[in-house]
Amino acid sequence: MGADIRLLEELSGSVLEEVERAIIGKRVILKQIIAAFLVGGHVLIEDFPGLGKTVMAKSFSQALGLEFKRIQFTPDLLPADITGSYILNRENNSLELQRGPIFTSILLADEINRASPKTQSALLEAMQEHQVTLEGETLILPDPFVVIATQNPIEYEGTFPLPEAQLDRFAIKIGVGYPTLEEEHLILSRRRERRKEAFEISQVASAADLSEARQVVEAVHVDPDIERYIVQIVAATRSDKRVAVGASPRGSLALMNLSRAWAGMQGREFVLPDDVKQLAEPALTHRILLQPEHWMERDAASDVLESALASTPVPVFDGA
Fold first, then answer.
1. Which of 209, 225, 294, 305 has the CA that lies 20 to 30 A from 243?
2. Is residue 158 assigned to a domain?
3. Mutual orientation of helices 27-38 and 273-284 as an angle, nearest 10°?
């Protein structure tokens, strides 16, 4: 197990180092995305335009050597534009499958909340079952298959909020945030030195490496006390008076699996309470449905989670 953990640590470190050639000053965010990749989870990025969300998704695909496709979600986008459809081949008078962009390893769903709920629902089966059903035929998606979706938190006109069932399918929800003055200066300097817009990201891993790393994550030990700690945190989100519907058991599973991936990325074979705390916010806040009077409070879900973490006793382990 020790050698496997080292391979996992090296793989995540290599991918992180390569992606940081394009994305500056967002190490924690990038590590959280890698953790989501390691557990086969999908990523929702909610932040302002121009913060590198598209570049981030493409850089990960290049570093991992995975096929990448992008869909710009618009109000007139149809489900068939995502999944594909059967078309008539007039030469042999037969129906042929025209595969949509969803048949890829990394799918960037850009501004996902601009499409209608009917179109958004075209992703549901793919995100959960890793398959698409067309005309009664089930088609398996590539392995790995990861959706990285983005949405803009400041423009609500002409948008359709994601249904709770779809939000629950995302392993993590994160915000990129503005860089510091020094980081933004470095972005300008690197662009000037590069003398072109595109980044050169080298492939440092493969789909087979990612699959092997996921098996290593499955072997990372989770103590029963840590499992109870996770369950108690999630349960605390359901009892908060500000919450209409708390995090689901799928949230508990996501937090446990992400914590295992995070521990493995640090070169550990076991999960610590700090791993759980590190992943709790990105894993749970988007699964919390607030009471109507708190809908306009931007950080209300984060405040609920902070209260849940503060009120939950942290398990203590001895040196053994």
1. 225
2. yes
3. 90
